[in-house]
Amino acid sequence: MASRQPESRIVGSNGENALVVIPTFNERDNLPLIVERLLSSQTGVHVLVVDDSSPDGTGDIADRLAADDAAGRIHVMHRTAKDGLGKAYLAGFTWGLGRDYAVIVEMDADGSHAPEQLHRLFDGINSGADLVIGSRYVPGGELVNWPKRREVLSKGANTYARLALGAKVKDITAGYRAFRREVLEKIGLTEVESAGYCFQIDLAWRSLQNGFTILEVPITFTEREIGESKMDGGVIAESFINVARWGIQGRLDRLRGKK
């Protein structure tokens, strides 16, 4: 699909018409900070906190933030199961698609994604892109306080996915991204099974397969200061296996003339 021509603003100058989905599990110290920064920098956005029954009381804090927000911009979803980042996002996307939001955003709760740079993603949407990824690996992108081991693992995963899938996306594993609602409506969310961080590759690949355009914009990714990363060996294994399967299937489809 050719890139859309620039059109009237899809997202307002203060983030109007956009929903930011923030999944949480044990983020009680980070959540108030990130929500305050987000609503200060983009006063028109709405926020949906998707909490997976955090034992540290994150869900209660989210409820309190929502109750204190007179403008009604903060919403909370309580899930009873902790079954992966992808499932939490899918639940949030479904909630957002049931309302009138034109753009739905993924953002981490731990402060690694700067809300002050969200306008870069919105500018990309308003310029005509279907999916805008906040990228660490395009010119202008930065990493702050990230352990070298994690950086090597991330760059290796992106290189592997790019080669296996033939996708020209430098940071296909990135989790700071904005979707036009039409993308999420078309790519088959009910068929997505990826639970961990492989979910990010899955949705970007589905977007490309459906002819949508992806734009990468530079962001500064900052390692969390509070709490622990949710990355583990099972997440890495899931990504490796699924990407290989998608790459093989994509090549077979092209040989058969399906793509």
Number of strands: 9
Unreliable stretches covering 5 or more consecutive residues = none
Give helix % range.
25-40%
Summarize the main sheet. Answer: 7 strands, mixed
Question: What topology, given as strand order, has the largest sheet?
Answer: 3-2-1-4-7-5-8
Structural classification? alpha/beta
- The backbone outline, from C-alpha atoms, is globular
What string, H for helix and E for strand, traces the elements in order?
EHEHEHEHEEHEHHEEH
Radius of gyration: 18 Å
Q: Kindly estimate the percentage of residues that lie in beta strands according to DSSP.
A: 15-25%
**Count of DSSP H/I helices:** 8
State the distance separating the first and last CA atoms: 12 Å
Whole-number mean pLDDT: 88
Question: How would you portray this structure in words?
Answer:
By secondary structure, the chain is an alpha/beta fold. 40% of the residues lie in helices and 16% in strands. The chain is built from eight helices and nine strands.
Brief characterization of the structure:
The chain is an alpha/beta fold. It contains eight helices and nine strands.
